[in-house]
């Protein structure tokens, strides 16, 4: 089988203790991370987990409501238990549904002690996950990972962390393949021709944002060459989108911030020719959909959270203080982001665009 991994395996290797068919009972319940980017990075592990799941056994996901359509679009997922944001103890109806499933075990891809306790109380007999917050006592098996240190490149991809958990349970190596999402048709409002997506926001904090004027420069160059630009983000990032599009011809741009459901968003991201993004959930989602792009990194660690696709180029101008992992720049200069020039990003965008045309 061809190995199309975007990077070599970087995670610690744990002893393999294969699960027996009887361990699955009716299936597996997986607790997803809450952030979009982290949730996307679990997809390779879910794919490999599916390969060892006996026929007739389900894979179910627990996630926040806004991620429900993401997991429902995956053919490897059978059931999604979604809860409203802020409902930390999950709603009674959802708890009853989980209890009734009689799944054999759960894998926790987050670090929550509370969720481990809840799953135990709901009758899930065996839990697996990272050792964190004193929850190892509740787990059948917990796994220790090296700690991330500010100012250092960690070198262990989050994707590989998740993969290492399922490999320790007997799942095969990941070869870089990604699933075909079940998506609706691309909406009719999309114009024909070359479409460039921009994701200028970052939910984690302003420190991760490449300047709006730099995104605007990229957009202007794309439009000058006959293309169309779409800006993606949450409703709270609408102001950033307006900054990016200020002064650009309205007939060649579209601000979609906060205007699409997840399934529609995925269909549009699948359709665009490329995306330029900060290190963000939209970056990870677009890469998983198979769309190429350019990612600008600064205060975060590209060696831990790279997009899961070889079709992406990463731009990172190392500064003495980076990666600091701060939500706001401690010295107020955002030097790690401003050091990345539009010219460099444009060159990378041209390179991936040519590769995509071949």
List the helices and strands and how they pair.
Blueprint: H1 21-24, E1 27-31, H2 36-40, H3 43-52, E2 58-64, H4 68-72, E3 79-83, H5 92-101, E4 105-108, H6 113-121, E5 126-130, E6 141-143, H7 158-167, E7 195-199, H8 212-224, E8 228-231, H9 238-245, E9 253-255, H10 262-271, E10 274-278, H11 281-288, E11 293-297, E12 312-316, H12 335-338, H13 342-357
Helix content: 25-40%
Coarse shape: globular
CATH topology tier name of the largest domain: Rossmann fold
User: What's the CATH architecture name of the largest domain?
Assistant: 3-Layer(aba) Sandwich
For the largest beta-sheet, the strand count, sense and barrel status come to: 6 strands, parallel
Number of domains: 2
Which structural class fits the helix and strand makeup?
A: alpha/beta
Helix/strand order, N-terminal first = HEHHEHEHEHEEHEHEHEHEHEEHH
Q: What would CATH call the class of the largest domain?
A: Alpha Beta
- Report the sheet-strand fraction: 15-25%
Biggest sheet: strand arrangement:
3-2-1-4-5-6
Spans of at least 5 consecutive residues whose pLDDT stays below 50 are none
CA(first)-CA(last) distance: 23 Å
Determine the number of helices (DSSP H or I, runs of at least 4 residues): 13
What is the assigned CATH homologous superfamily of the largest domain?
Answer: Glycogen Phosphorylase B
Radius of gyration: 21 Å
Summarize model confidence as the mean pLDDT.
93
Q: Using DSSP, what is the number of strands?
A: 12
């Amino acid at each position: 089988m061809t190995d199309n991994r975007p990077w070599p395996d970087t995670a610690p290797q744990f002893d393999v203790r294969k699960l027996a068919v009887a361990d699955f009972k009716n299936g597996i319940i997986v607790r997803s991370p809450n952030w979009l980017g982290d949730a996307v990075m679990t997809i390779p592990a879910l794919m490999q987990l599916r390969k060892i799941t006996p026929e007739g056994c389900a894979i179910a996901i627990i996630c926040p409501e806004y991620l429900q359509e993401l997991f429902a679009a995956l053919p490897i997922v059978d059931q999604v238990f979604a809860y409203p944001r802020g409902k930390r103890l999950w709603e009674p109806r959802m708890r009853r549904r989980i209890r009734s499933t009689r799944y054999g075990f759960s894998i926790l891809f987050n670090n929550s002690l509370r969720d481990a306790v809840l799953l135990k109380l709901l009758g899930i007999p065996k839990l697996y996950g990272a050792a964190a917050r004193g929850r190892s006592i509740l787990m059948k098996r917990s796994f220790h990972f090296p700690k991330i240190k500010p100012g250092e490149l960690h070198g262990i991809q989050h994707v590989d962390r998740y993969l290492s958990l399922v490999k320790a349970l007997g799942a095969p190596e990941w070869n870089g393949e990604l699933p075909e999402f079940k998506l609706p048709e691309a909406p009719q409002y999309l114009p024909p021709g070359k479409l460039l997506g921009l994701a200028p926001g970052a939910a984690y904090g302003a420190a991760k944002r490449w300047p709006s004027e730099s995104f605007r420069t990229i957009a202007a160059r794309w439009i000058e060459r006959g293309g169309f630009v779409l800006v993606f983000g949450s409703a709270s990032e609408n102001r950033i989108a307006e900054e990016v599009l200020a002064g650009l011809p309205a007939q060649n741009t579209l601000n979609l911030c906060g205007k699409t459901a997840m399934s529609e968003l995925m269909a549009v991201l699948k359709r665009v020719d490329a995306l330029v993004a900060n290190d963000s959930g939209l970056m990870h989602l677009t890469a998983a959909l198979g769309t190429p792009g350019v990612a600008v990194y600064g205060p975060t660690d590209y060696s831990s959270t790279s997009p899961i696709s070889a079709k992406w180029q990463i731009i990172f101008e190392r500064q003495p203080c980076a990666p600091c992992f701060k939500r706001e720049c401690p010295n107020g200069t955002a030097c790690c982001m401003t050091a990345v020039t539009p010219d460099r990003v444009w060159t990378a965008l041209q390179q991936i665009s040519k590769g995509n045309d071949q």
